[in-house]
User: Fold this.
Amino acid sequence: MTTKLSETLLSILCGEEFWYWDSNNANTITFNKDGTGEVVCRHELNIWIAAELEWKPQMPESLDQVVDDISSIGSTGKDHPHLISQFDIELTLAKRRIPMMRRPDTQKWRINESLLTDDAFLPKMYTLRLEKGNFLTPYDAMLPQEDQYTPMFARRLAFDKSPYPPRHEWKEPAGAPDAMRMWEWKNFCGRQLPELKMQADEHTWWGNCVVF
Assistant:
């Protein structure tokens, strides 16, 4: 079944609670319509970045473009994404911490400006490609194999360079940053496909059950 939808590029960009680099909801970026947002970089109990951000399009009218879309699962294959639009934004990472980043109190963490140089917080220009298709998150795509519970997404946001600071903007890149190489992460996924989301939710529910 297909459903015809009309959305602006702005509503697509800002309509996602998160754009995901991984389906574990660990590394994400968010855009709000008021020009604010959030970016998070973490792995398990380690957090490196949990910062607010500011963004603005180079041509604001470009995000008012209306996209008449046909939304259906499997409408384009994983190997054949369809370009919706390409646009430029200015993005500035702020030193302001996300107050309560999914429960942990970030004031207790050594993150953001404690780990990054001042250059990391300067405005930077990015070219973004918004694509539709059936996508695995970049992290899931690196796994040896996917199972029936691996979520798929209908949108991909591809940066020309990573929104995470490059290596030379880390005060001490040796160690976890060099191991993670987050400055190479350029693609983020959004709009999880509903059938697969239902399967993943069911899998999580059963996985959380404890038998006594």
